């Protein structure tokens, strides 16, 4: 493709990149390997692979990209091929490659001049480039991942430069199970198992790759998805990922996957991004107590957390792990005072649309004051500022909040009607009328005597 670039796209998605991709290559590649990198990969990812192995060959469909990469790898042993995968000869490399890397997937290995080349045929062609016992590193996008639930692509129906006509059979299998089954069937004769990683937040920005999305790994995944979707959303991305992880659906709904065949790698990439040990995120524990209206648990945990902060701890509840009666940091320290830590939790709780057991604590300051009081801390009153009202993060949470407030308003209106009826009944009762008839003349005489006394004093 002469007038096209996958490294510097106009309205197309960029090339595969990210710390997780770099960590995967570092774990899978060996110094004596010959490697084929097929498809768009970021330049820093390619150079990172080139310094680890004996030789690196590149296959890209863009002529400008091929020229740029050839200049970048001028001192590296290997070649840069420009063209489609269906025209790349199987017998090009004598004995095959030790590793074939296609972390961007298989969709961008051909151009518009390829009339028909299915996903299965592309996989078979890549497999044919492998030496016996070789390793395959493959990426794939999830067509129904968290991004469809959180922030659908409203421009998906608009024509883009890369939306040229293709055969209907060229699409990849949809979903993790069909994709895994297709891989296992295609690689049945290949020695080595298929290991799957859930990639967050995308193939083009692979910050973390996880073999299991549960526990603290679910929190890490939720943070990355939330950081990528900071605009208007249908549902709170952080909560959606955590709820899916709790239901065991974190891997199936991941935005993308890595499939590693015949290579060994850690269960978490890069290493160290997921905390080890037992416990639960303090924020999740407190939110559960709020939803269940377990005030006894709140009064037990909040004082312990405040005492930990006073002893030198430096983390808000969303960055602290609760393990029994002990506390430890989840990530980097946060230099805030006790009230600011509690206020951060209050704001995040209101943004999540979580149920609050106290109707009066509907703003961050009121909820912060109530939580601080559980630890014996008095938060000074301050004038209400409408700008401090926290709006739930997603449209679904906003609708749930509106429904909850409407229900509370209906109950309050019913209580007002009941009170008004009770007062009206009292006024119509005989004792009230008798008392009113007796006391009313006395009030009139008392007022008149006061006026006479004021005149005498003058």
Automatic annotation (TrEMBL):
Q: Which InterPro entries match?
A: SAM-dependent_MTases_sf
| Alphabetical list of SUPFAM superfamilies matching this protein | S-adenosyl-L-methionine-dependent methyltransferases
Q: Which domain of life is it from?
A: Bacteria
Name it.
Answer: Methyltransferase family protein
